[in-house]
Specification:
The chain has 516 residues and is mainly alpha-helical. 74% of the residues lie in helices and 2% in strands. It has one domain. The protein has 20 helices and four strands. It is globular and about 70 Å long.
Length: 516
Amino acid sequence: MEPLLLAWYLVPALCLVGGALVILLVDLILLRPGLTSELVGWLAVASVVLAVALSFVSEPRALLVACPECSATLRPSVTILAVLTYDAFTAFVWRLILASLGLILLISRAYVRKLGLEPGLFYASLLLFGFGALVLAATSNIVMLLLAVDFVSIVGYLLTGFLHNDRRSTEGAIKYLVYGAVLSATMAFGLSWLYGMTGTADYAAAARALASGEVASTAWLPMLAFILAGFAFKIGAAPFHQWVPDAFEGAPTPAAAALAVVSKVAGVAALVRLTTVMLPAHLELGLWWRWPMVAVLAVIAMCVGNLGGMWQMGMKRLVAYSGIAQVGYALTCVTLANQRSMSALLVYLTAYALAELGVFTAIVVVAAHGARVVPDMAWSGGEEGAGTLADYRGLYHRSPVLALLLVVSVLSLFGMPGTGGFIGKLGLLSALLEARRVGLLVLTALNTVVSMVYYWRIIRVTFVESDLEAPSVRVPLATLTVAGLVLLGVIAIGIYPAPLVRWAETAALSLFAGLL
């Protein structure tokens, strides 16, 4: 295919890089802090909107083919620069990442302005973080996989430690950095081992080399363990999760939202592509990878996340442990790695992203409402307004919209019928039942029930308890828009999931049918 034609597929990702460079340039030229914050904020949002729009028009229609099985129109898989794969799965994940990033940028504007952060660097970092996530989700080469993981991690370190004068932010960034350095090196060792044994960095070529059977499968297991440890770090899965609560607590809340949604979605997508392309189910090594390796990781993540969340008093730490458990649920689909489970996974990731963004939207507003700013310092004192669950006491009368958003999002994370989370969990439980993984299904269902213990604590302080002396919370217009979109999305998926399910089925088909 013509190089110029292939370049069109990268336009959405390049929009984020271009937007980041423009923002940094504007930040250097303009000397009025108030004007700069507003301008670069809208430039960041415009970059994401442009990227989403171009993602629908950057795919040449000459590549359209018909899919009689799913009554859909598909595009063949396209390899870009020999290291990236663009297909329906990539398109789905990219648009989910871009939509999530756009909502995060919208809720960031009032937060950045209130707290006096460096707007140019902050927004540019978020855009570059999104760019790295897009590359990570599309990679089909072990060298590019390692580079993308490291790029996302490095920008993540910067965002976590962005509150320069907050000790919690610095502590979270240092822990994130130490864990990231160790586990990136571990993953690099595993990938170099893989390259040395197969002689190729391409996923498909590596699969062919592994299928030759010249080396016993058990000899490859340490290599797979090193690679899986790197993925577990990237998506924040136990037992490599220790950095997650501290990073979430110390990072600016919009940055924590990006770590919770953008990074996890991209990491899970990269894990799925490696599993389905390089370690297919017909390989003995692929079976070892799915069961017991990924399955054990899923169980540990669910149990540690839910049990750890029961004892948390800090709001962001509680959400961090909830995210660890949610990753465990997602990994149950990776243990199956068939078309049915991948479709369920994509629906689940969409519901998770919406609900998580709803929770973080409420946290952002409460954090900005209670924060202090010292004129001579960019930041001081931390996010007092979002520190503990007690700060949300009586939120139903202080801000009914935020209270409704928070409760609906929490119920969706739990899997309450009528919400998107219910459709997502129903899909993954159905996939487990269909594959006769009864033990994993029971553990997933039990962990879902356990999670209601700490989700109920959020609902209780928001609606049951009251603090009539607490001042009302003002919700900025942009944040109110995000709240409305999240509520609409969560409820719409819960009531009428058919369009999303069809799109997810089309995307999942591309991983197995050699299409798109």
